[in-house]
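Possible regression after last week's pipeline update?

I re-ran a chain I had predicted before the update to compare outputs. Posting the input and the new output here so someone can diff against the archived version. Not blocking, just want to make sure nothing changed silently.
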Amino acid sequence: MSTPENESAAAEAGGEGQSTVENDALAALNAEVAALKDQALRYAAEAENTKRRAEREINDARAYAIQKFARDLLGVADNLARALQHAPKDAEDQLTRNLAIGLEMTQKDLLNAFDRNGLKSISPAAGEKFDPHLHQAMMEQTSDSVAPGMVIQVLQTGYDLFGRIVRPAMVIVAAKDSTGGATASSPREAMADEDVQRSN
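New output (post-update):
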């Protein structure tokens, strides 16, 4: 036979059991919400990274789409430069002089088109330090006018497209046994040297 005290004790025990089950369910739901939040953040970050990567690839494709075309045009520019070297600009025949002038104008237009499209020439001056990232050494020669490791002569002009090498400049480099003095590595240093010489 149940007494009121027994019933209230059973009710209390049932209430505690129900409260423990509710707390466990609440904790499980909170853990699931946290896991889903974390997963959503990871997916959002991954989507943002994919978007950035795609934009970078599109920009690179746009910027360097003309690279192969530019490389093909460099042969034309080289042939034009060679023709200009041998063009008789002071010929007596007016037709020959006009041909030389026409070649000069064509070369100027071609180089301007290169410049407008981001294709820059690489043509180191004699005495400039050899840079393997920009220059390709075709041979080494002993020099009495240029220090070792410096460029003696450019055999073929190089080009870069927005900072990416399309063709390195082909150069002759001073050998280790060269006796030439070191050249100033920048125009500022060259001007400083001239000032010192003038003051002496």
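Follow-up from reviewer: compared with the archived run. Residues 183-200 have pLDDT under 50 and may be disordered. Marking as no regression found.
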